[in-house]
Specification:
With about 170 residues, the protein is of the alpha+beta class. It is about 45% helix and about 15% strand.
């Protein structure tokens, strides 16, 4: 009986350091921030309004940090292709972690990253911008329908600016 008890005590003594490490090492789980849908909607509305003020009929899509669509708005005269194009721009900006205007240049024919254009759903056209809060990407916005990718991006940035105070944490 003493042998079994001694073996049990020895086993417990060996596993105690491991149990303590498991409690200290909580790297098994991650936490992250995403925009509330209300903030995503406000961002999309502000981007749409910015384009309207310039006379552009567009669609705006906001995705979360994983590229999942949160909001899509299409102005009444925006082309039928604009909602899916805006969504793809937002997804691309999140997936590649950068503005799609920069990605369009980096993946142009002859550039080393040209093959990225073959990624399913990626759209290397200006108008997609990641949304950051305190150095963390929390989503992305895409705009489609203005006369240029630069104009689309300007509207997206106006949308981000409209909610920037809500994203500071």
């Amino acid at each position: 009986m003493k042998r079994i008890f001694a073996a049990a005590i020895g086993l417990v003594a060996l596993t105690l350091p491991l149990a303590g490490k498991a409690q200290q090492d909580n790297d098994s789980l991650v936490t992250f921030q995403v925009m509330k849908v209300e903030v995503a909607l406000e961002l999309a509305q502000a981007a749409l309004e910015s384009c309207r003020e310039q006379g552009f009929q567009v669609a705006v899509a906001v995705v979360d940090r994983f590229g999942v669509t949160q909001v899509v708005l299409r102005d009444r005269y925006a082309g039928p292709h604009t909602p899916s194009t805006a969504q793809r721009k937002a997804w691309t900006s999140v997936s590649f972690r950068g503005p799609t205007t920069e990605l369009a240049e980096a993946t142009a024919p002859g550039e080393e990253a040209f093959g990225a254009r073959d990624v399913t759903n990626a759209l290397m056209l200006g108008g997609g911008v990641p949304v950051d809060a305190a150095g963390t990407m929390v989503g992305g916005v895409g705009v489609s329908g203005a006369p240029s990718g630069t104009a689309d991006e300007d509207c997206a940035l106006a949308g981000i600016d409209a909610v920037a105070d809500q994203l500071a944490f």
